[in-house]
Amino acid sequence: MLGERIVGTVMGGYDGHRGWLYSLAVDESLRRHGIGTRLVAHVEHALTGLGCPKLNLQVLSTKAEVRAFYEALGYRADAVISLGKRLDALADPVPAG
Ligand SMILES: CC(C)(COP(=O)(O)OP(=O)(O)OC[C@H]1O[C@@H](n2cnc3c(N)ncnc32)[C@H](O)[C@@H]1OP(=O)(O)O)[C@@H](O)C(=O)NCCC(=O)NCCS
């Protein structure tokens, strides 16, 4: 918050095994002022307090600037691939048979 104005968002979760960070965004007019860093630090602090040993997140491979941001905060690419499956109306049709 900046006064009454919302200038950034972040979500974090901990499932008892790993923490996840989602939906980080800072108002475009206020970027590069350390707000993103503070939002991530807030989640890191909260999850550390819950005993979370590692925080994961996903970045679209096309977003080099977002990767640069996280790398500046000490995040590194893990040697994994990310798999996903839609369960909603956009799910692929189940093959017949
Ligand atoms: C990514 C984002 C949250 C960063 O927020 P921010 O408040 O601007 O980040 P900070 O000011 O804390 O930046 C900290 C450091 O990260 C790095 N960094 C931040 N933005 C960067 C960019 N566009 N390119 C390269 N490095 C960047 C810099 O090292 C920066 O330090 P510096 O400003 O002293 O050089 C913001 O750019 C954003 O909202 N992007 C769009 C939403 C998005 O893609 N979110 C991620 C979803 S996974």
TrEMBL record:
Keywords assigned: Acyltransferase, Transferase
Entry keyword Acyltransferase: yes
Gene3D superfamilies in UniProt: 3.40.630.30
EC assignment: 2.3.1.-
Domain N-acetyltransferase: 1-97
Example GO molecular function: acyltransferase activity, transferring groups other than amino-acyl groups
Gene it is expressed from: ypeA
Species assigned in the record: Paraburkholderia ultramafica
The name this protein goes by in its record: Acetyltransferase YpeA
Source domain of life: Bacteria
UniProt-listed Pfam families: Acetyltransf_1
